[in-house]
Structure formats: C-alpha cells, structure tokens
Design brief:
This protein is of the alpha/beta class. The chain has 2 domains: 3-11 and 285-332; 20-33 and 100-283, 3-Layer(aba) Sandwich (Rossmann fold). Helix content is 50%, strand content 14%. The protein is built from 13 helices and 7 strands. The protein has helices spanning 3-15, 35-38, 40-43, 48-62, 66-80, 87-95, 103-116, 131-136, 172-180, 216-224, 241-248, 265-309, 316-332, and strands spanning 19-24, 120-130, 145-153, 159-164, 206-210, 228-233, 254-257. A 7-stranded mixed sheet has the order 4-3-2-1-5-6-7, with helices on both faces. Helix 11 (241-248) links the parallel strand 6 and strand 7 (254-257). The radius of gyration is 27 Å and the shape is elongated. The two termini are 20 Å apart.
Length: 338
Amino acid sequence: MGETEKDKVIEQIKERPIRMAICYDFDKTLSPDDMQAFTLIPSLEMDKSTFWTQSNDLAKENLMDNNLAWMYQLITLSKAKRKSIKREYFNEVGQSVPLYKGVVEWFERVNQYAAKKGIEVEHYIISSGLKEIIEGSKIAGEFKRIYASSYLYSPDGIAEWPAQAINYTNKTQYIFRIAKGIFKEYDERVNDSMQDEQLYIPYENFVYIGDSATDIPCMRLVKSKGGYSIGVYDPEKNQRKKVYQLFADGRLSFYTAADYSARSELMQYMKTIIDEVAAKERIKTEQKVLKINADLYKMASQMETLLTQFPGAIPAKEKKVIDKEIAEMKELLDGKVD
C-alpha cells in the first residue's frame, strides 16, 4: 500500500454512505384502525366487528393462520356478494385510509434532519395488512419497500389466492432482508451468514415503530441488536396499557402518542436517535481510520519478529524483500515507531 493508496482508503472510509432504516407497522401505527375497516369491509355489506369475529373463528376452527383466515374471508365474502375484488380496487381503498396527524409530512422532515447529520434514511413498511391497500395510500411513495400480505391475481386481475401472508413471527425476516440488502421476498440468500461490516444497514441503525404485541418479535430483534424500538398509542383514545407493558418488559426504547407532527414527542425522540446514530458513526469512522496505522504497525512488527526468530531459515534474497516491505510499511505510518 503506497501513500496515495492509503489516502484513498481513508477517503473511502470517510465518504462511506451512512444509512438508517426506519421500519413501520401500518395499522394503528401510521393509521388509526385496521386498513380493511374504513372502506373495504363496509363495501362488502358487513360491519368490521362481525367480519373479524368470523375471520378469527374460521382460523380457530381450521387451525389457520389468522392472516390467511381474513384473506380467505375477503375472497369468500366478495364472491357471495358477487363483487369481484381487484388490485385496482384495493389501491382505490388505500387512497381513503386516514393517517395520524403529521404522517404525510413526517418522512421529508426526518430525511432532511438526518441529511444534515450525514445520514441517509430509508423507510420500510413491515405489516400484516394488505400491500395493495398500502400501495394506494398517499404515503406509498415514501417507502423503499412495502412488506405486507398480498394476493395472487387471475389474468383478469381478480384476487384469488394469498401470495404473501405476513404474521407477527415472520415479520422478523424482513429486518434481516433490509440489513443485508437482500430485498426480494423469494431470495433465500437472506439466510446466508454476513459479517457486520458487509451489512447494507447495520442493525444498530434500525428503528422499528409499532403499536402492539404483534410487533414484539421485531421490537425485540431490533433492540437486542443495538437498534431502537418505539411503541405508539392512539392520542385520542390515550390507552397506554400496551406500551407500558412493552416498556416494562424491555421491548421498547421509547413510547409516545402516534403524533408525527413537527413538534411532537415522537419527532423529538427520532431526532435524539438520529443524533446518537450520527455520533456512533463518527466514532466508527475515526476508529476505522486509526485502525489503518495500527494494522500497518502490527504487520511490520510481526514480520520483524519472524526475521528475528528464524534468522537462518530465510534466504538472504527473501530477507532483503521482507526488510524492504517492513521499511515501506513504517514509512506509511504517521509518527515515529523506532
């Protein structure tokens, strides 16, 4: 490694992209209720309580996953009402899904604050709700990926079978996918081992925002790996039992109302997290730069030890080459070592 090459390595370290991932549940995290409740279920002439009761009963009676049950229930009900449900209809339903205060402006506000700290924020949805509805919402374009339950469609575009059913336990795979930069749902390389320095986004740069016990696996995973989890509650209902319990159990870093406005407590927590991530990344950068000199010194010392321990075992020609390499390494070091 010459002086110019060393300088390039240092420059690359200092200019490496610093990324954060903020992962969100959707229902009751960004929106006040289950997304199906606002328009979709009423359009099939059923009230939401009856729909969920029948869906949960179906799951219990047939040992089904609850998410597969509601997805099946929607198809069955639509056929009974002779109302075919298409992707476009789900997208249309998504347009009318209400959002908590400040959600629409939240993403740009967070991105701008993070950018001032040298951080690029990527936003992700990890939800058991319906992907096609989320894709129709006014904030769909803010997310790098939307991981949610979805349907397989017929050639005519009619929903006929679940393609993805995401529940609270398999949500965690998407944390690993994002961290490793292996985004496609079918890509099994997500199970491959990856060193921390190879990660697309370090786990300690993750934030997970959710509202209930169904988010516990993701909250626990992110927090256990040095990231941050935030529990939110409906500011109007002000029911805090879940977040109190989650915080007491060590699942949460913070809890607050689902208010995403500029002066909200949630925004202050996010700024604090971004500040801490930025500080940690600055420390990492300095340590990586310092490691270059330390590693050069270590290699030179080990080579000198080798020559000392085996003075007659190394031919003179090879010894001359090694002496030259040692001298070059020492020349690259900042300061004196002899």
